[in-house]
Write a sequence for this structure.
């Protein structure tokens, strides 16, 4: 597998250290390539550093000190406390709303995608191909083409300005269905399903007990990406919700930002906007870092099939 | 994980291969039942709204008389609307410049990481991907503050150097938005390319090395062709994304002043302002539908072109 290809057995001088063998599987590291890649990594990380640094500044320091330097005194904990108490602690309410939308939305959409994707891969029924084509086509429909009529329909049903208006659209994840279909096709052996049928297991039981556990890597991937897209959703809640009590964090933080920038008469609370932003992204970063193994393998499944 | 599953699959299907002859007697209804919950909701949040959109696009809200049926007048008006063209041209130009830069960077990064020649490649893979997890609202706030001349780094640099460079002047705002979007999505695309590269059998590289191929030749003749289908997918998704540009300019309007961002800066912003501040929902629906058809047509063209190239090879 890893046959040496570049290292030559050179005649060794007595004092020379044994030379490392460079192989295809373990080539020589390149410093210049690392530096070039490092420049791009710097572009990726500087804004996040900026956010962390500025979350530790008081409002006065934020306005007066250099962007990537620390301020006069370390105000991170003051800022965090203020974020949770400003406007009667509405930030906690927004956080709870976001968690509500994310948990229900991600769980329901992932389960529906798994059920549907499995059915498409392992069951034959009328209109299967047409269904798949329509769902895949729907991925390229711009969000706004849906959002305006969704808003008008929901308004007629009287569910705008309620959590349902944000939840119901998030239950459908066409790309998740696609990923689940691809994954079911590859990871659930048809023979296993047949064997369970012969043993007399019902179809729903076969799905829940046999197929669903085998779909775990894809499930974690779809769950995580729904988590991110719902957590980060801005446009849908922006048009659906008027009552600040139902806002998710994205809309709430922008509301605070507007408050600060209504020139002159507004109270400047950029320190709270920045600290709130930092608090908002921590759960996402933790989720991505801790679930790496799953989503990386899940994502590659989708990429290879294409 | 996936490899484990695949090996499991072969062994299990060997064992039960005999049962293959028993295949599906009358289980068609089960498949339909499994797909039903998704389908019903899909109908409710995708198909019905699109149909409804087409319906209201033929109406106009009049101050006196309420909704009036006007056939295709909204579409005719749209194709003569210079504000609509202003937005369309802006996002098309943005797409034509930003998408190639982003995808080229993503491919270069994927190749660099896959070459195994980086110190700390795992670290790079994660760092470059991480911006994808940051919501548009936070990334726009960060970049808006950082690039802004009032509180930001650019302000400090201007003060130090005595210059007056403004990233959010009307001529440069779009470039700044490009910097934000590229920041957010390069890592995601990089991971897709990286996954495709990892799927290339390593034996191919060994065989090429034995035949005396240089690293450059391996990239040119093995790795880049392996990226073709992922490239088509990423181009399509990027086009869909940039045509819908909304969050960044919408949030920037409250963050920086005199940035040149108008209510019709992008087609999505125009549709939004028509529908929700101008209460011209019929006109907004017509605009959104035209953009949807335009987007799907471009995505389809990219796919056809990509497949044709694959056949010619």
């Amino acid at each position: 597998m890893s046959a040496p290809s570049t290292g030559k057995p050179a005649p060794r001088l007595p004092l020379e250290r044994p030379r490392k063998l460079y192989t295809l599987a373990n080539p020589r590291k390149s410093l210049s390539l690392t530096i070039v890649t490092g420049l791009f990594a710097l572009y990726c990380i500087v804004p996040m550093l900026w956010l962390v640094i500025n979350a530790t500044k008081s409002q006065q320091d934020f306005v007066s000190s250099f962007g990537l330097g620390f301020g006069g005194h370390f105000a991170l904990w003051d800022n965090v406390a203020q974020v949770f108490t400003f406007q009667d602690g509405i930030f906690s309410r927004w956080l709870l709303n976001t968690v509500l939308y994310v948990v229900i939305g991600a769980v329901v959409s992932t389960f529906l995608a798994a059920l549907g994707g499995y059915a498409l891969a392992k069951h034959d029924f009328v209109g299967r191909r047409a269904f798949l084509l329509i769902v895949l086509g729907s991925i390229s429909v711009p969000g706004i083409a849906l959002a305006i009529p969704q808003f008008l329909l929901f308004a007629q049903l009287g569910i705008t300005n309620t959590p349902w208006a944000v939840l119901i659209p998030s239950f459908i994840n066409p790309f998740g269905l696609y990923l689940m279909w691809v994954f079911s096709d590859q990871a659930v052996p048809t023979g296993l399903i047949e064997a369970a049928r012969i043993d007399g297991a019902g179809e729903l039981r076969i799905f829940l007990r046999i197929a669903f556990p085998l779909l775990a890597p894809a499930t974690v991937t779809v769950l995580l990406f729904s988590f991110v897209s719902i957590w980060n959703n801005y446009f849908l809640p922006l048009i659906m919700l008027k009552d600040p009590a139902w806002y998710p964090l994205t809309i709430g933080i922008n509301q605070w930002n507007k408050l600060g920038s209504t020139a002159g008469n507004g109270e400047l609370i950029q320190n709270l906007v920045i600290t709130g932003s930092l608090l908002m992204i921590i759960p996402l970063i933790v989720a991505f870092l801790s679930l790496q193994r799953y989503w990386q393998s899940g994502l590659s499944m989708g990429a290879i099939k294409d | 994980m996936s490899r484990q599953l695949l090996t499991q699959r072969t062994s299990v299907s060997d064992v039960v291969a005999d049962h293959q002859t028993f295949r599906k007697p009358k289980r068609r209804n089960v498949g339909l039942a499994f797909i039903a919950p998704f389908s019903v909701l899909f109908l409710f949040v995708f198909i019905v709204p699109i149909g409804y959109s087409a319906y209201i696009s033929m109406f106009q809200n009049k101050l006196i008389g309420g909704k009036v049926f006007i056939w295709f007048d909204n579409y005719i008006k749209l194709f003569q609307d210079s504000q609509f063209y202003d937005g369309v041209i802006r996002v098309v130009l943005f797409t034509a410049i930003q998408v190639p830069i982003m995808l080229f960077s993503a491919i270069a990064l994927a190749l660099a990481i896959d070459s195994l020649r980086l110190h700390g490649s795992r670290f790079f893979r994660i760092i470059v991907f991480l911006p994808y997890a940051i919501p548009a609202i936070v990334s726009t706030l960060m970049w808006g503050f950082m690039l802004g001349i009032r509180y930001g780094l650019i302000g400090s640099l201007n003060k130090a150097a005595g210059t007056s460079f403004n990233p959010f002047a009307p001529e440069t705002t779009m470039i700044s938005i490009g910097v934000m979007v590229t920041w957010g999505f390069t890592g995601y695309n990089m991971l897709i390319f990286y996954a495709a590269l990892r799927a290339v059998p390593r034996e191919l590289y060994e065989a090429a090395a034995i035949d005396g191929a240089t690293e450059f030749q391996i990239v040119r003749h093995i790795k880049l062709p392996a990226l073709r289908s992922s490239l088509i997918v990423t181009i399509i998704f990027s086009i869909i994304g940039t045509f819908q540009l909304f969050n960044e300019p919408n949030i920037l309007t409250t963050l920086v002043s005199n940035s040149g961002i108008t209510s019709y800066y992008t087609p999505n912003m125009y549709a939004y302002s028509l529908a929700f501040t101008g209460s011209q929902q019929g006109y907004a629906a017509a605009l959104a539908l035209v953009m949807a058809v335009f987007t799907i047509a471009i995505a389809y063209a990219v796919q056809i072109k990509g497949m044709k190239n694959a056949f010619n090879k």
Observations:
- The CA atoms of residues 152 and 211 of chain B lie 55 Å apart.
- The two ends of chain B are 34 Å apart (CA to CA).
- Chain B touches chain A through 117 residues (CB under 8 Å).
